Hints:
2 copies of one chain form a homodimer. Chain A is α/β, with parallel strands linked by helices. Chain A has a domain at 126-277 and 318-343: 3-Layer(aba) Sandwich (Isopropylmalate Dehydrogenase). In chain A, 47% of the residues lie in helices and 16% in strands. Chain A is built from 12 helices and 12 strands. Chain A has helices at 15-27, 39-46, 68-74, 79-89, 102-113, 150-168, 189-199, 226-252, 258-274, 300-315, 318-333, 335-339; strands at residues 2-6, 32-37, 53-57, 93-98, 123-124, 127-129, 136-140, 174-178, 204-209, 221-223, 282-285, 290-293. Chain A has a 7-stranded mixed β-sheet with strand order 3-2-1-4-12-11-5, sandwiched between helices. Chains A and B meet through helix 8 and helix 9 of A and helix 8 and helix 9 of B.
Amino acid sequence: MKIVVDAFGGDNAPVEVVEGAVLALAKKKDLTVVLTGDQKRISEILNGRTERVEIVDAKDVITNDDTPTLAIRQKKDSSLVRAFDLLKENDDVVGLVSAGSTGAVLTGAILKIGRIKGISRPALCPILPTVKKDKTVMICDCGANVDCKSEHLLHFAIMASAYSSIMSGQESPKVALLNNGAEEHKGNELCKETFPLLKKLPINFVGNVEARDVMSGDVDVIVTDGFAGNVLLKSVEGVASGMSKLIKQEAKKNVFSMLGALMMGRFKGLKAKMDINKYGGAPFLGCKKLVVKTHGTANREVIKNTILQVAKLYESGLNEKIESLVLKMTESLGEEKTGGANG
Amino acid sequence: MKIVVDAFGGDNAPVEVVEGAVLALAKKKDLTVVLTGDQKRISEILNGRTERVEIVDAKDVITNDDTPTLAIRQKKDSSLVRAFDLLKENDDVVGLVSAGSTGAVLTGAILKIGRIKGISRPALCPILPTVKKDKTVMICDCGANVDCKSEHLLHFAIMASAYSSIMSGQESPKVALLNNGAEEHKGNELCKETFPLLKKLPINFVGNVEARDVMSGDVDVIVTDGFAGNVLLKSVEGVASGMSKLIKQEAKKNVFSMLGALMMGRFKGLKAKMDINKYGGAPFLGCKKLVVKTHGTANREVIKNTILQVAKLYESGLNEKIESLVLKMTESLGEEKTGGANG
Lengths: 343, 343
């Protein structure tokens, strides 16, 4: 199995990305990694560790300052565009990993790879930790589609259900709709229209969830439009980091004491628990091939996890599961509710 | 000045509500409080402390299980409806405080009190703490209007700007639009349409803010539709409480040691810093008279703060400021952009 990795995407590229690839290769013996980016620099970092590694030279880099659509169209010799070209043109390349610009990764996936038949809008689906031990929750969509119709949310629901089932091993993950109240009649027009349709899908839909209960660990998948999902994801990040700062300030008051030192130690354990990145990356669900965006600050450990995540999703047949659910959904809802949303 | 308080709204009613009123009266000598609810029970709690307190008997209570519109229309002898009637019918009653059902308070405010001329949609505007010392941020709207047009967001912006200016004493509070990116071109259709109009308002509009920066303390007011605002507010609550649980779990591992005990002590200080309630309640901006909803779990201290907040808003002429800004806004944008949104 071959996975292509954008070696020059992200804040810690290329060193951490290349080292992450080496770690993934050590973990998985049937894996080959294709690294895209400045060949000379990548070779230097690899420093002779070339088993099951291929390098495809790319002189350019897409940054967060680039406009995604322009960058994908014009920076043809960038590490990301080269990676997408490899993914598109080679049957044996099964997935792509990038820690680069989210917008560019999403744009590249749509322009170069395209959608699974029947899926109107691919969606970004990151994982969050919960207060329950070893229990996570997936949020779909988190920013790829900021204006949604109910048909889109139905697709997000089946895609994320299939994804969650693979990652957690549960047969029927609990899927909930993000809403401003728990009762069925609550919500904006989009939620009110989507709720009854979600009940008809071949998934385990458990009703509405409020944003305050996202981290409760009671549900496995949260479906929402990309705007609200983005607000949710980023406020979780923001509060976690804000509280971290406050905790550190408190701890510093005792920094010369044993208490301060011990508090900081304890806090590191807590921070690890809250660290979203350790779960790997966020897949762009609904693309013809696996595309996983990992955090811009990803270190080698996160890159390794993300590459292994792509391998797992491929081996578990994520896209086949999604295709099969789309067919079942069409049967459940009737052609008119699912066919119209394409494009 | 008279303020009416729904003595039977909230989880800790009536004891904490009545005691909160007594605390507020002790702080402010020109204040009279009208308490609505079971007269006998209120008198028992007051236990002779009757100076500047009036009681209006109400036998019924509206709970969170009631449907707001039905409850306001049918439970005419409830503490909340009696409070709204008093606010409506008496010129000397300047504001209302309730810790009861948010939906019922909003519905009562609209049905019984009505809107300030020129304001299309009143909006709920709670205060959040930030990482900067003594710096807060206001979010408008947080759930009163889940489907919004850009005109509504413009009204939220001027109302919350006026409110923030009174609460913080700043002449020109920084107002930002909640969005999924910092750049002007970012956002869903609503944000893209609203951004250029916000620039024309007679307020200090500073651009987009992402949800992760809400607690940064860099802006004073965040404008958003009520659905996204609700997601933001509740996820902040959820993560703060989720992290609290994790911190407590960590601390418990050392519960018999000095460290554990000291950590819990430190943490209480931190929790106080994160406690949204200490700032009082969330006003329902844009009503003809002041209506402030405080948290269902409010204790006497929070009730006291909320009553004093209403007094401050009245004395500072919040509604007059809003009316004047609406007029200026109409001039800035032209009649067609502001007149059409009424209703």
